[in-house]
Amino acid sequence: xxxxxxxxxxxxxxxxxGFTSFGLVLVGLLVMLTACGGASEAPMLQSASDSGAxxxxxAPEAPAEEAISGNYDDAPxxxxxxxxxxxxxxxxxxxxxxxxxxxxxxxxxTRTAVKxxxxxxxxxxxxxxxxNIYQSNEVPRGSITIRVPAELYAETLAALRDMAIxxxxxNTNTQDVTEEFTDLQARKTNLEYTESALQxxxxxxxxxxxxxxxxxxxxxxxxxxxxxxxxxxxxxxLANQAAMSTITVDxxxxxxxxxxxxxxxxxxxVAKEAVQALVAALQGxxxxxxxxxxxxxxxxILLLIPVVFVIWLGRTLWKRRQxxxxxxxxxxxxxxxxxxxxx
Length: 343
Fold this sequence. Notes:
343 residues; 67% helix; flat
């Protein structure tokens, strides 16, 4: 085919210009596609990063979930075992029990018995908390209260029985305060945690806070400290009462239980009978007086009212009748003697 070289070279710039324009358009399209792809990938990357953050936040809980799912078959048995273990531990926990006793003894001499009981309390690592000696029928009687370690409570009671001629009365009381003591311990622990947190907050407020904030935190901290000290005081009281048992001893000398007897005569028995007779007589007189005041006197008043009225009415009528009888009659007119006809 015959081609004119001059014509070819004349058309060559136009063809190159066409290729250049097409290349520019293609490059522009590629740039637009790249921009759209980047824009679409940005949300995907953002969502991926958010998902990663969420996964990182939830990650610590994953082992627990895996543990739960892995031990699902053993969970009921484990829970029951834990409950039984806690119950056994609570049952094995030392009990806080307060022992108190009351015993009445008949002894030979009150003062000697007080000295012996005081020595017994000291021997048992205890002490005397109260002692009282008084006169009864010119004979000393007394009472003494001692405190001894709780583990020696029964042993001390046995020693007191051995001191007496006989035992008139004996009572033992126990008070289990374990629940109250445990509750106080839990409350104290919680308040101490609160106090620690408030102390930390107070330190921070003292560096950057205002005066009102510092005062408010300090006021709350003082309140928490007061509650802790109150609980500690109650716990110390319960612990002391549980550690040291209390025994109250009433002492009566044997002479008061032995009547005086001389050749078959028992003045104490006679005096007792006389006192009983006097009391019975006084009771009878008082009962009679009560009956007279409450029953007889009102009844007599009701019965005497019509009698008094009848007597008054009779006296009034009688006085009127006597007055009528004593009234003098009018004098009769004087009669002139008849004239003598013989003259």
